[in-house]
C-alpha cells in the first residue's frame, strides 16, 4: 500500500511538473510572439513598400509608352516678337487623362501582388546591426491592395542666360494595405518622376520663374 501511495504521489508530482513546464513554455512563446510580431510586421511592410514602388514605376512607364508622352504634346510655348516667352500652355485634357490612367494602372498593379513570398532574416528581428540580415530566413506570403492619387506639378530652373529648364513632374501617393498571416498593416508610398522636360530659350517672366509648382500653368 505504501509503495502504491508513493508511486501515485510521484506520478502526480511528475504530471504537475509537466503542466508547469508546458504553461511556462506557452507563456514564453506568447512573450516572444508579442515582441517579434511588431518587428515582423515592420520588416514585412518595408518589403511591401519596395514591391509597391516597383509596381508604381512600372505603371508610370507603361502608361507613358502607351500614350507616347512628350513635352511637345503636353505643353505649348508662345513667344512674342522680342523673343520673350508670352505664355506656357498645358493641355488640361491630356493631363487629366494621363493622371487618371496612371492612377488606375497603379492601383491595378499593386492589387495584383497576391501571395507574394518574402523572407526576413532572423537576425534582423533582434534589432542589432551585427546580426541584421544574418541567419535563417522566415518566409511569409503577403497580399497587397491600394489606392493611388496623382498630381502634376511644374519646376522651373535657370540654365543660363535666357535659358530655363521646365520640368513636368508626376507626384504619386499610394495608400498600401498589407495582409500578413495573422496581422494586417498599412503604409504610404510616395514617388516623384519627371515625365517631360525642355529648355525654354528666351526670357521667362518672373511669374513663371517663381511659379508655384502646386498649380498648373496657363491651360488651353
Task: Give your account of this protein's structure.
There is one protein chain. The protein is built from three helices and seven strands; from the N terminus they run H-E-E-H-E-E-E-E-H-E. By secondary structure, the chain is α+β, with helices and mostly antiparallel strands. It has one domain (2-219). A four-stranded antiparallel beta sheet has the order 3-4-5-6. The protein is rod-shaped, with a radius of gyration of 30 Å. The N and C termini lie far apart (105 Å).
Lay out the secondary structure:
Blueprint (H helix, E strand, L loop, with lengths): L1 H66 L7 E5 L5 E6 L1 H20 L4 E6 L15 E24 L2 E18 L2 E19 L4 H4 L8 E2 L1
Parallel strand pairs: 2-7
Antiparallel strand pairs: 1-2, 3-4, 4-5, 5-6
* Radius of gyration from CA coordinates: 30 Å
- Total count of helical runs of at least 4 residues: 3
Oligomer: single chain
Distance between the termini: 105 Å
- Averaged pLDDT: 76
Give the strand line-up of the largest sheet.
3-4-5-6
* Poorly predicted spans: 209-220
Q: What's a concise summary of this model?
A:
By secondary structure, the protein is α+β, with helices and mostly antiparallel strands. It has three helices and seven strands, in the order αββαββββαβ.
Give structural attributes.
single chain; 220 residues; alpha+beta; four-stranded antiparallel sheet; three-stranded mixed sheet; 7 strands; rod-shaped; disordered C terminus
